[in-house]
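Deliverable D5.2: sample structural annotation.
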Amino acid sequence: MQVEQVLFMNGGEGDNSYANNSAPSREATLKTKPLLHESLFDLYCNGFPDCIRFTDMGCSSGPNAFLPTLQVIEALDTICSRLKHKPPILHAFLNDLPGNDFNTVSKSLPSFYERLKTERGHDDFGSCFIAAAPGSFHGRLFPPCFLNLVYSSFCLHWLSRVPKELVSECGIPLLNKRNVCVAKTCSPSSVHKAYLDQFEIDFTSFLKFRSEELKTEGRMVLNFIGNDKYHTGVFELMEMVLNDMIYEGLIEVSKLESFNFPMYNPCVEEVRQVIEREGSFNIHQLETSHISWSVGYENDNKGLELNEHARAKNVADNIRAVSESLLANHFGSAIMDDLFHRFTIKISAHLEMGLGAYTVLFIYLIKK
């Protein structure tokens, strides 16, 4: 499976779109705001540049696509107002894989600029330029010493490929049969090693390419899903559903055995070791926090009695928005509605036990 060709968040603005089902990612972006502000303060006060080049890697589409850029603008306005300086020009590059719904992003640009005009007092385009930068962040995307700040939210747990040790080039399953990710209870240690090795390759490449693209003392602010070894991953529940569908004859055994998500959730020490080994960045901050699977539903229903089925449906819809492209490509689109209906029921039982949270890594790096 060529991940770049089949992985994309559901486009458009429909019921299953990422635009309407991305609350956990939005929450991670909001939680990252203090780190982003600190990085911009440090960056701006180190030379007072007239122009700052910023990229959001893994921007996707919908309201979240412009949120980090808006946070950068707000931070610069606040910093420059305090220092009585004119804010620098911002060049913002929105990056994602070529299959991303950049059409919806482009159509949203006029309303975003209008928002800047009415809320922030930006009367023309002279203070902020936004461009798309399609491509994989596992490779080079920008000229050398070009960027001041790199940002990425809820993306770096995605791998460039499924570990080669899991499935042969002919599609024959070699390891992790009947599992679709690193399952805490039943995946052998060789599967964990294969995923970790691939994560180390990909994250090392990411750091190397970003160090080439960033100016000296450029900043990088990242968040992505990690692993604290205590919380069951939501994709382990998906795995249970797929196995149930095998028993009912709805999915072929060979189909499940040859499928693995190109995703790895590292622990803090695994991330730290890769950063230190690669050697291009100093770690200013590396910490974890937790975000509820159903944070969007909970925020929309504060003070109200929670409907567990509606809450579980919200979680399933979020996962459908980010994973349907991979699942439909492998299992076929005909079973998607049934799959996610069953998935909702499985999630509901999990939530009723008081479980269901993402462990999220928050990282602030400075180029040496």
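Annotation notes: The mean pLDDT is 87. Residues 112 and 201 are 37 Å apart (CA to CA).
The annotation will be released with the project's public dataset once the embargo ends.
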